[in-house]
Write a structure and sequence with these properties.
Layout (H helix, E strand, L loop, with lengths): L23 E5 L6 E9 L5 E10 L5 E5 L6 E7 L12 H6 L26 H13 L3 E5 L2 H9 L7 E5 L4 H10 L6 E5 L4 H7 L4 E3 L2 H6 L5 E3 L4 H4 L9 E5 L13 E5 L2 H14 L5 H11 L2 H20 L6 E3 L4 E5 L3 H10 L4 E2 L9 E3 L11 H6 L7 E4 L5 H13 L4
Parallel strand pairs: 7-8, 7-9, 10-11, 15-16
Antiparallel strand pairs: 1-4, 2-3, 2-5, 6-12, 11-12, 13-14, 14-17, 16-17
EC number: 4.4.1.13
Family: Belongs to the trans-sulfuration enzymes family.
Enzyme class: lyase
C-alpha cells in the first residue's frame, strides 16, 4: 500500500498534535485482506525518527478502510499483510552486500563506517572489517588487505621456495612482470612464462616442481592457482568459485574506485593457506593502514554501480573505435580496452589532446584514464619482448569512467581527427 506523506512546518511534529487537520483518505481493499496494519515513524524537526507503535485496522472483505492522513505526519510507514505468502530469503547480490555488511567494529552502528585514527586497537579493527567484507564478496574463507597489489603478489611469491616453479602468463601488468622476471628469480624460484589462452602450452610448462598453475592442471599436480582479478572485480567474477585457491586484487582500481588510495587484497580458500599468508603479512608489516581501509570501505559501496556504468560506457566506446576510419584496430570491450592507430605520432597526439581522459597507468577509476603502455606501465619490459607480445608503440589503452559517454566519444573523435596524418 502506498501512503502519501504531507510536508509539515519546521516546528516539532508528533502523532498526538499534528500541525494541521488533514482530510480523510478512503482506501479500497480489493484483495479481501482480513488483517492489515501499519507501523508509523515520525521525523521531529527532520533530525530523528520515533517509532509510534503499531496501528492495526481491522476490516472485512471488500470493505473500505477510513484512514486519517493526519495519523502520519512527516512519517515513514511500513505496511504488512497477514494474508501474503512468505517470501523466501535468497542470498543477497553483490550490490546489496556492499550496502549492508555487518559493522561489529563500531559500537554505535553508524551508517557510515567511522575512522578511528589510531595505530592500535583492542582486537577489533577497521582492517578486520575490511578483510571480512572482501572475504564475503569473493566467497573466500579469509581475505587480507595489503598496502598495494604488488605487496600482495610479493607475499604470495614467498610461498614458493628455492628450486620450485611458478607458471605465469606472458601478458600481465608491467609491475607484476618486473617482480616475476627480475626479483623472484633471485630467491632460486624458476618462473616460466606462457600464453595462458593455450592450455596445451600451460600443461607443457607444468612440472613436478611447479607451485602456481591453472585450475584443473594445477590441482592435478598438487599446485596452487592464483588469479589476478583486478580488472574484473568481485562484481563480474569470483575465481574461487571456479577453482582458484587465491584471488588477488589491486584494490586501488575498481574496489576503491576513486584514485585516492593504494591497496591490495588476497582472498583465499582453506584455513591452512590463510594462516600462511597471515603469517607472512604480519612478518613483513604489509597490512593496510586504518585510514586506507576506511577509504576502501567508503569507495567500495558504489562498486557495483560504477562497474555497471563503466562497462556500458566502454561497450559504446569500443563500437565507436571499431568503426572509426583513423583507428587501425580496437580490442575490447570491458571497461579497460585498447586500440592501435598505426602511427606513433597520432597516438601521442591523442593521449595529449583529450580533455576528459587523465594520463596515468592506472585503471578502474570513476574518471576516464588514458595511457601508452610501451612508454608507461610496460616500459620496463624489453622492446623485443613487448613487440613479440603484440605491444606496439602506437598502442593506446583507456580505462573508461562514469562520465557521459557521448562526451567521451566526442573527445576521442576530436583528438583523432586533429592529429597528424
Amino acid at each position: 500500500m502506498a501512503a502519501a506523506a504531507t510536508s509539515a512546518s519546521s516546528s516539532s511534529s508528533s502523532l498526538r498534535s499534528p500541525p494541521f487537520k488533514a482530510p480523510s483518505s478512503e482506501l479500497k481493499n480489493p484483495r479481501g485482506i482480513a488483517n492489515f496494519g501499519c507501523r508509523a515513524g515520525v521525523i521531529s524537526n527532520h533530525n530523528s525518527v520515533l517509532l509510534r507503535g503499531k496501528l492495526v485496522l481491522s476490516c472485512l472483505r471488500e470493505e473500505k478502510m477510513d484512514v486519517k492522513a493526519s495519523a502520519v505526519v512527516d512519517g515513514i510507514t511500513e505496511c504488512f499483510d497477514d494474508s501474503m505468502a512468505e517470501t523466501k530469503v535468497k542470498e543477497p547480490s553483490v550490490s546489496t552486500i556492499l550496502m549492508n555488511f555487518e559493522n561489529k567494529f563500531d559500537p554505535y552502528s553508524a551508517m557510515s563506517t567511522p575512522l578511528y585514527q589510531t595505530a592500535t586497537f583492542k582486537q577489533r579493527s577497521i582492517m578486520k572489517l575490511c578483510n571480512g567484507l572482501l572475504a564475503k564478496l569473493d566467497k573466500a574463507d579469509r581475505a587480507f588487505c595489503f598496502t598495494s597489489g604488488m605487496a600482495a603478489l610479493a607475499t604470495v611469491s614467498h610461498l614458493v621456495g628455492n628450486g620450485e616453479e611458478i607458471v605465469a602468463g606472458e601478458d600481465i601488468y608491467g609491475g607484476s612482470d618486473r617482480l616475476l622476471s627480475q626479483v623472484v628469480p633471485r630467491t632460486g624460484v624458476v618462473v616460466k612464462r606462457v600464453d595462458t589462452t593455450d592450455l596445451d602450452e600451460v600443461a607443457a610448462a607444468v612440472g613436478p616442481q611447479t607451485k602456481l598453475k591453472i585450475a584443473e592442471i594445477a590441482h592435478a599436480n598438487n599446485a596452487l592457482l592464483l588469479v589476478d582479478n583486478s580488472i574484473m572485480s568481485p562484481v563480474l567474477s569470483r575465481p574461487l568459485e571456479l577453482g582458484a585457491d587465491i584471488v588477488m586484487h589491486s584494490a586501488t582500481k575498481f574496489i576503491a574506485g576513486h584514485s585516492d588510495v593504494m591497496a591490495g587484497v588476497l582472498a583465499v580458500r582453506g584455513e591452512r593457506l590463510a594462516k600462511e599468508l597471515y603469517f607472512l603479512q604480519n612478518a613483513e608489516g604489509s597490512g593496510l593502514a586504518p585510514f586506507d581501509c576506511w577509504i576502501c570501505l567508503r569507495g567500495i559501496k558504489t562498486m557495483a554501480l560504477r562497474v555497471e556504468k563503466q562497462q556500458d560506457n566502454a561497450q559504446k566506446i569500443a563500437e565507436f573505435l571499431s568503426s572509426h576510419p583513423l583507428v587501425k584496430k580496437a580490442k575490447g570491450a570491458g571497461s579497460v580496452l585498447s586500440f592501435l592507430t598505426g602511427s606513433l605520432a597520432l597516438s601521442k597526439h591523442i593521449v595529449e589532446t583529450t580533455n576528459y581522459f587523465g594520463i596515468t597507468v592506472s585503471f578502474g577509476s570513476v574518471k576516464s584514464l588514458i595511457s601508452m603502455p610501451c612508454f608507461m606501465s610496460h616500459a620496463s619490459i624489453p622492446a623485443e619482448v613487448r613487440e613479440a607480445r603484440g605491444l606496439t608503440e602506437d598502442l593506446i589503452r583507456i580505462s573508461v569512467g562514469i562520465e557521459d559517454v557521448n562526451d567521451l566519444i566526442a573527445d576521442l573523435d576530436h583528438a583523432l581527427r586533429t592529429g597528424p596524418i
